[in-house]
Amino acid sequence: MARWAYVNGRYLPHPQARVHIEDRGFQFADGVYEVVGVVEGRMVDREGHIARLLRSLGELRMAMPVTLAVLDLIMRELIRRNGVRNGHIYLQITRGVAPRDFKFPKNARPTLVMTTRDVGKFATPAQLENGVSVITIPDIRWLRRDIKSVALLPNVLGKQQAVEAGAFEAWQVDGDGMVNEGCSSNAWIVTADGTLVTRQTDHLILAGITRASMLTLAESAGIKVEIRRFSVAEAYAAREAFLSSATTFAMPITRIDGRAIGDGKPGPVARRLRSAYFEVVCGQPS
Ligand code: PMP
């Protein structure tokens, strides 16, 4: 099946989809993005992702190039054209094309691009059976990580470090030894007494849309939740650990820096939240 991309008002064959070399996204990473999961052809948690997109744009004083109704139509059309069943849609908005100059351009039109990806399966049987491993690394990012900006170099380096260490993700840790979040996911633990812990959202982490849904699911399941920072030491001693994102959902973690977490197997809370997310949020059997 031909693969299509969307670029500023046009659907183009993916190999021909391009933006100008003076796009500010290319030159300054002056842009924002969103990744919305697609499960059985339907977007998941769409409203939350669009709300966060509008917030990111607002924080950077960037304009939304189309109405929300049109944005929704384009997203649905691209998913339809590409026949996406299980995967995601990526959308990016930059401040547009202008001669290279740091200050905001006067008359640039924002660039809007979208692509999709079909992943087939969201996780391998081995990942679900055995869990994944993470390493911890220093968080070297800027201080506005709540903005979903395309400036992702520290995340790129962190993820590469993880892969080279044979791990799935790297947890970025602050100067006090507290876990902020992964390079592309939020971080969770379950303490020895069964309390689910994830960090509060502020300027220092991204407010994950999957995180917010998981918190609602945890509350309705009667799981005790604490929204607070947790240290690497606390994570080593946790009963369970997992990560969350729009493309991984709740993914169990069974090793942190090479140490087994809990009994070294995916824990019941991560499993329960993963299936609840599929059933309640995606409307699909897990
Ligand atoms: N933190 C970071 C740094 C991320 O890149 C992501 C993925 N977008 C997340 C958390 C998870 O957010 P979401 O659940 O909205 O995908």
Question: What can you see in these coordinates?
Answer:
By secondary structure, the chain is an alpha+beta fold. The protein has helices at residues 24-28, 46-59, 68-82, 125-130, 153-164, 209-220, 232-236, 268-281; strands spanning 4-7, 10-13, 31-39, 42-43, 87-94, 111-118, 132-138, 169-173, 179-182, 186-190, 196-198, 225-227, 240-245, 249-256, 259-260. The model has no long low-confidence stretch (mean pLDDT 97). It starts with a strand and ends in a 5-residue tail after the last helix. Strands 7, 8, 9, 10, 11, 12, 13, 14 and 15 form a 9-stranded mixed β-sheet that branches. The protein has a 6-stranded antiparallel β-sheet with strand order 2-1-6-5-3-4. It has 2 domains: 4-118, D-amino Acid Aminotransferase, Chain A, domain 1, CATH 3.30.470; 125-282, Alpha-Beta Barrel (D-amino Acid Aminotransferase, Chain A, domain 2). The protein is globular, with a radius of gyration of 19 Å. Helices cover 29% and strands 27% of the residues. Bound molecules: 4'-deoxy-4'-aminopyridoxal-5'-phosphate.
Defining key terms:
alpha+beta; 29% helix; D-amino Acid Aminotransferase, Chain A, domain 1; globular; 286 residues; D-amino Acid Aminotransferase, Chain A, domain 2; binds 4'-deoxy-4'-aminopyridoxal-5'-phosphate
